[in-house]
Hints:
Elements: E1 6-9, E2 32-43, E3 46-50, H1 56-61, H2 66-74, E4 84-88, H3 111-122, E5 127-131, H4 156-174, E6 180-182, H5 200-218, E7 223-231, H6 238-241, H7 244-249, E8 252-259, H8 266-270, E9 274-279, H9 290-305, E10 311-319, E11 326-330, E12 336-338, H10 340-349, E13 357-360, E14 369-375, E15 381-388, E16 394-401, E17 407-413, E18 420-421, E19 425-426, E20 431-436, E21 440-447, E22 460-462, E23 472-473, E24 477-480, E25 494-497, E26 503-508, E27 515-522, E28 528-533, E29 540-541, E30 544-547, E31 550-551, E32 556-563, E33 573-578, E34 587-594
Parallel strand pairs: 1-30, 2-16, 3-4, 3-10, 4-5, 5-6, 6-7, 7-8, 8-9, 9-10, 10-11
Antiparallel strand pairs: 2-13, 11-12, 13-14, 14-15, 15-21, 16-20, 17-18, 17-19, 17-21, 22-34, 23-26, 24-25, 25-34, 26-33, 27-32, 27-34, 28-29, 28-33, 30-32, 31-32
Helix pairs in contact: 4-5, 9-10
Amino acid sequence: xxxxxxxxxxxxxxxxxxxxxxxxxxxxxxxxxxxxxxxxxxxxxxxxxxxxxxxxxxxxxxxxxxxxxxxxxxxxxxxxxxxxxxxxxxxxxxxxxxxxxxxxxxxxxxxxxxxxxxxxxxxxxxxxxxxxxxxxxxxxxxxxxxxxxxxxxxxxxxxxxxxxxxxxxxxxxxxxxxxxxxxxxxxxxxxxxxxxxxxxxxxxxxxxxxxxxxxxxxxxxxxxxxxxxxxxxxxxxxxxxxxxxxxxxxxxxxxxxxxxxxxxxxxxxxxxxxxxxxxxxxxxxxxxxxxxxxxxxxxxxxxxxxxxxxxxxxxxxxxxxxxxxxxxxxxxxxxxxxxxxxxxxxxxxxxxxxxxxxxxxxxxxxxxxxxxxxxxxxxxxxxxxxxxxxxxxxxxxxxxxxxxxxxxxxxxxxxxxxxxxxxxxxxxxxxxxxxxxxxxxxxxxxxxxxxxxxxxxxxxxxxxxxxxxxxxxxxxxxxxxxxxxxxxxxxxxxxxxxxxxxxxxxxxxxxxxxxxxxxxxxxxxxxxxxxxxxxxxxxxxxxxxxxxxxxxxxxxxxxxxxxxxxxxxxxxxxxxxxxxxxxxxxxxxxxxxxx
Length: 595
């Protein structure tokens, strides 16, 4: 809009007008959800991705805007704040190995890899995980790094020492702490790239007899990860679960999500082992849009709520891949595309930090809306992640059980916004009404036991259930009750034009100073005017402002309009004019409050 009509303030994308009760006199029945502060589930280890592995460290290291891309991936302030970095234990193919033959140890720096590791750590990464795709060729039955093969039985101890020296050497020679090491990547698959086959018995024997004793002898407390099959399953680990010494050695059970469904690894969790989803991507499609983004948010939600996973990792952070293997698509011309899945993944990684605990909330309170909630038990900070993977706007009442919280701050990813943070909204009597537009992910952050802000008192409120509070109006109006796509947040009575010409509504109240009007508009806002008068005869145009529009449903958007500054002395009349637009119904006045 032109400046003479409006001053657009980039600020808050509010969830909804707050009415306070689960059933409002104006709105239809609205579903309710309750956050249960004292209902505890799994502790979150983090959300992460791979970058310092194979050729992908080189790609970002040599990229002209590498610092910008690293910020997007790992900075909480300037990006999604990924807290886990998954790397590869080099084996001599694409990345050097620290032991090219039985007699040689070589810790010559590999600059791209170590640069990525250090830069990620500097941006806040809390856990460095390294996975073995293949041991060095000389340790394998085939003598090759690629196409499967197995670790020679006589090399089990060599391999255990190799991993111990890798951890120690990276700390000593490169200043990099490895927090967790995984024995094998996709141990069921003899891939044409670097790979090695392992059975469950192989894992059990190696853990119990070699790796754990070696780590203890070397004084290492690095977490040990086993699993990482391409399908989300832990069936291969039955021999590990049956071996008490192997179980004592094991810290984390990992898995990939190229097949299967996000179900819990019950034996692991019953034995106090953490569960990480350590790799997933989409190699078949090329889509960077908002529907793909919300699809991935729903996958993360399912792993948190159905599999009770402690961590979730995407495959690649940034690469030149033209499919969906990475969150950021690097381009040969030096530019890049930040896919929507980067930001919807960030709705978890940026706000649900390591050490948070998942807490109770209805996971699917209505329609296509999915909720999960997490708290920091030390500080009282918490996050609610809402995922709407359908086309309809979804509206619920949210109650808090076990805490009070006066305000929630929304952080929104959808077709229009990328993790944009907006001004807080306030609760009313401990309750919020929240709306999540179609194909949108929103994270609401708050702090437990903070007071509700004092509510503004209004001299007059008109919810447009009838025409009783209006002083005068032109002929071309009706009260609309239709609510397609829930575009109007269950508000079933609004004023809208019946003819595509200028129509006005006038309110009279002595000495008006301020107002707030909720307006819905379709796609583009045209022809909205406000005018003021002392006598109802002579009118002046009024400059107004509104905060960032809220996408609702079916291409409708919502704004809350306010005057720019206090109204002049002696204003007794306020006129709202709907003009222009391609359809008579393209603007709706939902409610207005006046002082």
